[in-house]
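User: Okay, second chain of the day. Same drill as before: sequence in, structure tokens out.
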Amino acid sequence: PDQVRAAVLRVVDADDVLVGHSLDCDLRALNLAHHRCADTALLYGHPRGPGYKKALRTLAAEFLDREIQIGAHDSAEDARAALDLFELKVRFGPEFGARGAAAREEGADL
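Assistant: Same drill. Structure tokens below.
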């Protein structure tokens, strides 16, 4: 973890935005804190409310019409999905995805 943490600190500075899914787990594993995070696990709510998180593969299927995490783990595939989900939030606003896939049916052109 120390080598990975050092590598992250070499390329990420305080003004960078980290985009990912359940970033708290990654940051905790690296013993890092970062104040500019876009975490798709939090940006896309869960029907059961705070404290629950939809899986990245579920969000990708609902909002990107994309199947991910089939077979071996591919961190690049996960990163692309998280970035694409974040882009949708930026493009369509904070309420996009708040009610699941039904929000897509109300005019959001993906």
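The helical segments are 2-11, 23-29, 40-43, 56-64, 75-92.

User: Thanks, on to the next one.
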